[in-house]
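Holo prediction — S-adenosylmethionine.
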Amino acid sequence: MISKIFFSLTNNILMNNIFIRFGVDSILTSRFGIYKRIKINTSLSPQQMAGFSEKPTVQEAINKIHDQLETLVQQNLKEGDRILDIGCGPGAYLKKWEGKYDLTGIDINEEMVNAAKKYIPTATFLLDNFLNHDFDHKFKLIYSVSVLEFIPPSRLMAFFRKVHLLLEPDGKLLIQYPHALNFKDTLYPDLYYVEYSPRKIEHELRKNYQIITHEHCFDRRIIDLYDPKPYEPGIRTFKNGYLLIAEPTIKPNN
Ligand SMILES: C[S@@+](CC[C@H](N)C(=O)[O-])C[C@H]1O[C@@H](n2cnc3c(N)ncnc32)[C@H](O)[C@@H]1O
């Protein structure tokens, strides 16, 4: 109850920008972030457990991500290469490579990790905040679907730097994220679900990555600050997502 009141009084553009300026956003999202304690219904499919419906329009958008990932894997990986899924949820995206590649998923939610372990017993699943975890090896492919919105703005650069350090020099990165839908979104109105603008993401990537693809996931449109023509305005739907595929430009040094 107290946290609900705190949440509604503080989660606004003015307060959020003050929090971001001083790095307090990171403390707040790790304390109140929705995925820390969320309970899941284990009788549902992995996709539904992760919060996505299977209605045809959503499914169509999700299938596009599965296809992009499959293409990346086929074009760049050989059997046994390491794949990391950041914010893997119950493992919906890792399952198809079971037995062929060395699979690791990391998630901050214990129930998600438990469901993933049951779904793909041969993969490694880590229960931790990606931003804080010490990994003992690098990966050929790192991807993250619908997780960037939970990474606080003051840690966004740290997120991409960490991925960079974890990527093999010839590795690939794929990120799907809900992009900003209007100018207000670019000012951080909701600290617990951040709709980053593609311009901001490119700014963070500039130093360390070569961008291969950065476009609307569903219709491949290029947007910059925000999308003036979102699907189902006013509703958070997977169809309003952006897709980034990149590779490291500077050789990681550890
Ligand atoms: C919307 S779900 C997406 C799950 C999965 N990627 C999928 O698309 O089916 C977001 C997931 O990210 C996880 N998550 C959020 N922030 C995280 C963090 N900092 N480190 C690891 N996992 C995180 C949540 O626990 C949740 O399982």
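READOUT: The first helix runs from residue 2 to 10.
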